[in-house]
Amino acid sequence: MNSPDEAERWRRQSAALDELLDLDEAARARRLTQIAADDPDLASTLTALLAAEGGQGLLEHGLGELPYSALKARADDHTRRGAVPEQIGHWRILERIGRGGMGEVFLAERCDGGFQQRAALKRLKRGMDSDEILQRFLQERQILASLNHPNIARLLDGGVAEDDRPYFVMEQVEGTPITDWARSQDLPLRDRITLLRKVCDAVAYAQRRLVVHRDLKPSNILVDAQGEPHLLDFGIAKLLGDAAESHETRTGLRVLSPAYAAPEQINGDPISTATDVHALGVILYELLTGQQPFRRARNTLTGSIDSTEYDSLVRPSQLLRRQDDPSLKHTWGSRASDPARLARGIAGDLDRIVMTALRPEPERRYGSAAALGADLSAFLDGRPISAQPDSSAYRLRKFMLRHRLGVAATMLALAALVTGFGTALWQARVAREQAAEANHQRARAQAQAQRAEKTRDFVVSLIRDANPVHSRDGAQTTALDLIRDAAKHVDALEDAPDTRAELQVAIGNSLIVLGAPDEGRSRLETGIAELRTLGEDAWPALADALNIRAQHHTVAGQLDQAHAFIEEALALYERIGPREDLVQSRISTMAELGRNLLYRGDLVAAQTLYERILAEQQALLGPDDPHLAMDWNNLGATATRRDRYADAERAYAEASRLMALDPQAPESRQAWLLLGRASALIGLGRYAEAEAACLQALEIAERSLHAEHTIVGSIRSTLARLYRYTQRLDEASALAERSQVIYAAAKSARIGSIEMQLGLIRLAQGRNADALAVLTDAEHHFASLSNREEPDYFLTAAALAMARLRTGQDDALTALDQSLQELVERHPEPNNAHAEVLTLRAEAAALLGHADTTVWREREIEALTELLGADHPRSKAARSRR
Amino acid sequence: MDTTLLIAAARSGDKDAEARLFRTLYGDLQRMAQHHLLRSGSDIAHAESLVHEVYLRMVGGGLGMNDRRHFFALASRAMRQIVVDHVRRRSAAKRNDGVAEIPLELVQESALASVAAGQDDDLLNLEAALQRLERIDDALARLVELHFFGGLGFAEMAEVLERSERSLKRDWRKAKAFLYHDLAHEQPG
User: Bridge partners of A159?
Assistant: First the structure.
């Protein structure tokens, strides 16, 4: 691994160290400067080496009792396994080198003169010495003797020992299990694939002679110092088509390793060449990710395996993206430094090869090791591989089995399913559409029935189509492929312009949600343009499409554009007049308007609207319908923003109650409700409950969604705020930083609020320069995203002024005062931002040594008391600052 | 075969003798470890170097300098193998926790020793670094083997290797510099 250059470099470094180590610090520095003049690289390495020499670590701590426990473990092992026999057959036993399910393995050498030969002697264990096993063993001996391949360990001898135990002797291989080898050599991806292809070739050679290995696993594939793999233990290999199949399979089970066994082995179904393919798939998965694909209990072999295990299997590339540094490092060594690149190399063809080899149904895997090997070769040569992903049709068929709804709703639901996208508001909309779909199926007009038929035809064409799409990486792309595939079919629907336009909208929406915004927006716009040309009949679909478009503008922070589309949609509903089948769509548009108002900071209007929606929904669905959970949630969110914490807590409690009534509700939604509740509880000063709610929300969100979801960022930010109030600043800081990363990665329009929180924490920490930087960003984000009416915007501006004051810009006090004044003008009611700004103002006065400090302190206390009550911890804290 | 003769044969290049010496060493080291654990319980951190003890037991000191050097080198190497293998198996047991093939005893032991988990990783990283050192400076790697794995003190090493303590200490510091530097660059975190 190391070039001679490296040895030479070390010799030079070593010689210099001899000299430097004896010098005192000053002399050392002088000498290093001299060396640097000549060879700056050498000097900098020497500096690093000298620094390392001063370090503390294992070398200082010593091994402790490790040698004792290691030796004791060995000794215990020895005792447990019993004595090593002197001799078996013509073989002298040197030492025991292993013990497997079938018996023990010894290192042995031939003792009947002739040539010196070392070998591995495998002796079957007691209790296995039935005639049947002996028969099988003798059979195995014959098969093995017929195998002559450089990568298969040869059978040398065999027989029955004095104690009637059968044994056989195999070529001894000095090597490392394939997965350990790949790890220890830091083997790059291509070399790993090349290595496994060699293994496939050897297995294919045996399979051509009708020998199936049946027990392939890393410990049976050793790699020698030259990097050559050797297959050991064709231990349960047997001729295909043997009459005693089922009986022997059961016997064979006891020696299998659950993690590598194919479902047919566990379920007692026929074994074929595809059985080895499955094991090779498991090993490939392990080579790529360091993890076994299926985590099975030890006793799995007595149970049975169905396809759910495969359905929940994570693709190798996806798994790599999810792994933390130590796991990556463990598997890939120095190559772990660029996990994204690794995952890219694996995504696509290799993912597909692995997933094909691991399919639970033998007939859907590669038929033989040769076929798998051929695809690995194709991958290495950059040729197209033969494995096809589950076709979009296949996946859709599976999906349709679960969701018998209209196509548009199906696609939206699919998008929601795979992305966990956006807010609970949005999910509620999908849920409502589904409910509405079911409700007005009966009431549909003739034209709509026809449209439904068209739709059905379209779905059928998708399902019939076996044309596969090449999926790239991860579930998202899989869904994206599905949608893109669907888009092609939509383009062909020339004779049904209304269906086509509507599906364009649905597809456009899905594309945006799935991370192809440009493509999606263009589809959406095309769909809307087409709908506009279709006249009155298309108004409901158009209104719906406009609402969808508004939602995407809202998410992108373009509140004005969103507002225009919402107004247009609501005007359409007005012109259509009351229609039972459109009630839900209209309400959904109103809810979107509510969100728009909320984000603008028009809190009173938002609340009025949400109250109206709730009243309508209650009249329509009754007070206990789970769908109302979202309306209560929206009211809770508005109340929190208005700092009406008791109202907010009541609303969230009602939302939780209703959500619990719906057994179908995904668990992830609880995270939103818990987060809302936590915010309300912080306002109420019930910090312990708030912390518990946050932590529970975080646990649910990270488990049921993923760690980078914006809701996770929101939860962390809320917890950060709580910790800021309770002076746990280090924790607050870490949480807010993480939250900022998540929001930045999601390009969320709401990042300003997160940065504001971080900025306030920085101020509390006294990290003034950092505060200045992050608050500058925050103000910029608020300003550029037209949510300059929000109370938090003014708090951000005030905090920024504070940071400027602290960094020596005395004139920033004017800016602080201006923020305060504007805030009071726009939001005269008591609110949290106001109280926080007053806190900052009092601090500013104190900082500048102004005489009116106490006046500001009193105003701060007054505001907090009015907002939160005199007993709130923040009110008390303010009084203690007096 | 007499241990003394075995050592001499091993030193002269007899691979078979070396293998047998190795096995004998293993056995003796094992017995001694058990003895220590029985006798002194948790107080073993201050026990005399196991390697040194096994030397006294096996050959009683009547060995020429070259043979002694060879013996200590071999015993320290054995200790390194034993410890590294043990830790490897222990962490493998942990990784697979409960999945197939790992003897149950080992799993339980690893659960008990989970406190030492960090140390296990450190040791395996150190082993990797030591292997890299071996490739470019074998003598320095041998020194680490003797001192760290064999537990030989500087005075003892000076006697056996016929070198000054001072130069040995400097070499030890160099080895440390290489290993810690290598660990910091090859194994961040």
Answer: A167
Residues in chain A: 882
Per-residue pLDDT, averaged over A37-46, amounts to 92
The distance of B78 to chain A (nearest Cα, Å) reads: 11
Rounded Cα distance, A845 and A252, in Å: 83
| Out of B23, B42, B177, closest to residue A53 by CB | B177
Name the region of A677 (left: φ>0; alpha: ψ -120 to 50; beta: rest). Answer: alpha
Quote the tokens at residue A806: 């602290």
Closest CA to A221 of A197, A250, A251: A197
- Name the DSSP class of B42: G
d(CA A366, CA A196): 15
Give CA angle at A570 (A565, A575), nearest 5°: 125
Q: Which residues contact A219 (CB under 8 A, 6 or more apart)?
A: A177, B101
Q: How far apart are the first and last CA of chain B?
A: 49
Q: Is the distance from CB of A272 to CB of A241 less than 8 angstroms?
A: no
pLDDT tens by residue, B75-119: 888 888 878 877 877 766 555 433 333 333 333 333 334 334 567
Which residues are within 8 A (CB) of A380 and not within 5 positions of it... i.e. 6 or more apart? A190, A193, A194, A197
HEC sequence for B92-120? HHHHCCCCCCCCHHHHHHHHHHHHHHHHH
User: Best residue in B83, B102, B186 to probe A by mutation, most A CBs within 10 Å?
Assistant: B83
Instruction: Please give the angle made by the CA atoms of A403, A408 and A414, to the nearest 5 degrees.
Output: 50
Least confident of A301-305, A436-440, A811-815: A436-440
Of B33, B183, B184, the CB nearest to A72: B33
In sequence order, which ranges of A389-538 are alpha helices (DSSP H)? 392-402, 407-419, 424-439, 446-464, 474-491, 497-513, 517-532
Residue for token pair 């064409």: A461
Give the model confidence (pLDDT) of A133-162 as tens digits. 666 666 666 666 777 889 998 877 777 777
Return all residues near A741 (Cβ < 8 A) that are at least 6 apart: none
Q: Are A836 and A760 in contact (CB under 8 A)?
A: yes
Residue type, position B32, single letter: M
Q: Are A501 and A534 in contact (CB under 8 A)?
A: yes
The complex scores an ipTM of 0.81
**Spatial separation of the C-alpha atoms in residues B183 and B177, rounded to whole Å:** 10
pLDDT, greater one: A269 or A425 = A269
Residue A768, C-beta contacts closer than 8 angstroms, at least 6 positions apart = A762, A803, A806, A807
| Chain A contacts in chain B segment 22-61 (CB below 8 A) | 23, 26, 29-34, 36-37, 42, 44-45, 50
Name A87's bridge partners: A92
| CA-closest candidate to residue A105, choices A220, A263, A19 | A220
- How many Å apart are CA A304 and CA A310, to the nearest integer? 13
H or E, element range at A222: strand A221-223
- What is the rounded CA–CA span in Å between residue A43 and residue A31? 9
Contact A323, A339 (CB under 8 A): yes
Closest CA in chain B for residue A14? B174
Residue-level pLDDT at B62: 61
Count of beta carbons in the 10 Å neighbourhood of residue B81: 15
CA–CA distance, A145 with A763 (Å, rounded to integer): 78
